[in-house]
């Protein structure tokens, strides 16, 4: 769980930074999308690196979701019929991990249909596929977020991502055996800051589109 | 003061069990929870009834035998305090207090509030000991350890084995308990020879009967010994170390 989760965390961080290129305009953003596909050419074939990353992410997804299912089943069995109830807010993030995880899974499916495969009605009516040397990622993104209900769903999904990440990173700290005071203090700070930064960085995009700042 | 005690009554492990209400009158706010149960039992016995069974020994927070669940919280409302050191002053006069056994699939109920916590002993039996022949007490200088290391080992050795961490955990995990033992033993010079083997054996035994850790942090709220969450990171560190080295020590 810790290793696959940390790979996801690294991915969403890099992905968020990439997303912020939307503020540099269509040309930059689309050029970035093309670059992702031609990365390390001709050493690797067209979309080679992209597919390698996709495969890593798919393997992580299967491991992460499978591990989570096993964990929940083991926990239920070990706890027995008398559950703990009326727990205070301090463990809210921990208790909601399975729920936030499932919401993220649904989000990823919607998100891929929306902006990668361009499958309607998840994708906007004006979705256009890219070619080998062009991309419409920018236009597709704007068109998608100009649908307020979709923008709202992205915003809520990013709040859920922030919650999942904050507790996930803190849990990974324990799984990887960080015992020293200093390291643990750093881990608390990094978990919180990364989760909030990724959440806010991504949320800013649908908000900017809705406000018409990015067109 | 006056309290209504809603107490879990269960004749044996095979019995289904259920709550029964009792009125407790004339108990002082300075009474401990266990003294209140003693007083209630006096009345029950005088009336020809079966007294409420509960565990206790030292009644001063050292033996770890007394844990019950009070209003859904293992040990009781005051954090990091064993049931024998919880006082009636925590409850409003005239209020209702619900008492039930520690809840976990690993703790079968023996009777009323008494549970069988030998699953914890099985974790210790798997490796929570030193198997070298220690003979008579060695010369104090023959085992060198720094003051800080010994203090840290003592902090983690403070666990009294009450099992509240398991009952507090929504996952029924014993990671805090096992972690405290592993960290404690990993720090001392005489226990190094079996460090890797011990981690594998104790964690294996733990995983057979207890749940996984999701870092809810509920355990550290109830632990009467104040074992910190770092014990759980320590458990995973010992596990990783054992797996990566693949050696007994
Ligand atoms: C508001 C936040 C987000 C925005 C604006 C966004 C935007 C995008 C865009 C525009 C693409 C398509 C890029 C291309 O065509 O080259 C994409 C792909 C993708 N995104 Fe996001 N994304 C967001 C959040 C997330 C999150 C939180 C995750 C995962 C938990 C995620 C996972 C993916 C995946 C897996 C792909 C597909 C990569 C591929 O196989 O090509 N995204 N995203
Ligand atoms: S770690 Fe704390 S709560 Fe758990 S058994 Fe030891 S003393 Fe009790
Ligand atoms: S009776 Fe010994 S710790 Fe409570």
Descriptive notes:
The complex is a heterodimer of chains A (215) and B (249). Chain A is mostly helical and 215 residues long. Helix content of chain A is 72%, strand content 0%. In chain A, helix 1 crosses helix 8 (181-210), helix 5 packs across helix 7 (148-175) and helix 7 runs antiparallel to helix 8 (181-210). The longest helix of chain A has 32 residues, at 48-79. Chain A is globular and about 55 Å long. Chain B is elongated. Chain B folds into two domains: 3-111, Beta-grasp domain (Ubiquitin-like (UB roll), Roll), CATH 3.10.20; 118-245, Fumarate Reductase Iron-sulfur Protein, Chain B, domain 2. Chain B has 249 residues and is of the alpha+beta class. Helix content of chain B is 35%, strand content 11%. Classes of the chains: A mainly alpha (215), B alpha+beta (249). Residues 159-165, 176-177, 180, 222-225, 227 of chain B line the site of iron/sulfur cluster (SF4). Chain B: Its EC number is 1.3.5.1. Chain B: It comes from Microterricola pindariensis. Chain B: Keywords: 2Fe-2S, 3Fe-4S, 4Fe-4S, Iron, Iron-sulfur, Metal-binding, Oxidoreductase, Tricarboxylic acid cycle.
Succession of helices and strands of chain B: EEHEEEEEHHHHHHH
Tally of helical segments of chain A: 8
Average pLDDT of chain A works out at 96
Give the largest interface pair and sizes. A-B, 31 and 35 residues
Structural class of the secondary structure composition of chain A?
Answer: mainly alpha
The stretches of 5 or more residues of chain B where confidence is low (pLDDT under 50) are none
* Helical residue percent band of chain A: over 70%
Rg value of chain A: 19 Å
Number of domains of chain A: 1
By DSSP (H or I, 4+ residues per run), the number of helices of chain B equals 8
The CATH class of chain A is identified as: Mainly Alpha
- Amount of beta strand of chain A: under 5%
């Amino acid at each position: 769980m810790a290793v696959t989760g940390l790979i996801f965390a690294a991915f969403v961080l890099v992905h968020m930074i990439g997303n912020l290129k939307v503020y540099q305009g269509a040309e930059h953003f689309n050029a970035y999308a093309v670059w992702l596909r031609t990365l390390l050419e001709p050493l690797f074939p067209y979309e080679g690196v992209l597919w390698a990353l996709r495969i890593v992410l798919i393997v992580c997804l299967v491991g992460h979701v499978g591990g989570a299912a096993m964990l929940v089943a083991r926990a239920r069995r070990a706890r027995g019929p008398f559950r703990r109830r009326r727990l205070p807010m301090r463990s809210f993030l921990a208790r909601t991990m399975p729920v936030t995880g499932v919401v993220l899974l649904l989000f990823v499916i919607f998100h891929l249909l929306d902006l990668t495969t361009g499958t309607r009605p998840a994708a906007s009516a004006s979705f256009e596929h890219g070619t080998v040397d062009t991309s419409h990622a920018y236009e597709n993104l704007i068109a998608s977020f100009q649908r307020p209900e979709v923008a709202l769903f992205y915003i809520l999904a990013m709040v859920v991502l922030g919650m999942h990440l904050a507790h996930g990173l803190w849990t990974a700290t324990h799984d990887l055996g960080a015992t020293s005071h200093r390291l643990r203090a750093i881990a608390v700070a990094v978990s919180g800051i990364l989760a909030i930064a990724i959440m806010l960085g991504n949320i800013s995009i649908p908000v900017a589109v809705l406000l018409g700042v990015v067109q | 003061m006056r309290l209504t005690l809603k107490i879990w009554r269960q004749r044996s492990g095979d019995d289904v069990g259920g709550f029964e209400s009792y009125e407790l009158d004339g108990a002082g706010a300075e009474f401990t929870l266990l003294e209140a149960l003693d007083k209630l039992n006096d009345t029950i016995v005088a009336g020809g009834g079966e007294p409420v069974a509960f565990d206790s020994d030292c009644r001063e927070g050292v033996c770890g035998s007394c844990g019950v669940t009070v209003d859904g919280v293992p040990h009781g409302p005051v954090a990091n305090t064993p049931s024998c050191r919880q006082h009636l002053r925590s409850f409003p006069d005239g209020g209702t207090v619900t008492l039930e056994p520690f809840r976990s699939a690993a703790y079968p109920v023996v009777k009323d509030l008494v549970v069988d916590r030998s699953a914890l002993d099985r974790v210790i039996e798997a490796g929570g000991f030193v198997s070298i022949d220690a003979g008579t007490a060695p010369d104090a200088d023959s085992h060198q350890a720094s003051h800080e290391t010994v203090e840290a080992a003592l902090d983690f050795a403070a666990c009294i084995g009450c099992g509240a961490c398991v009952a507090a955990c929504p996952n029924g995990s014993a990671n805090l308990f096992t972690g405290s033992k592993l960290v404690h033993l990993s720090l001392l010079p005489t226990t190094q020879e079996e460090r890797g083997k011990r981690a594998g054996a104790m964690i294996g035994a733990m995983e057979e009967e207890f749940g996984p850790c999701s870092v809810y942090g509920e355990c550290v709220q109830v632990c009467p010994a104040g074992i910190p969450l770092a014990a759980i990171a320590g458990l995973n560190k010992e596990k990783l170390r054992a797996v990566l080295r693949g050696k007994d020590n």
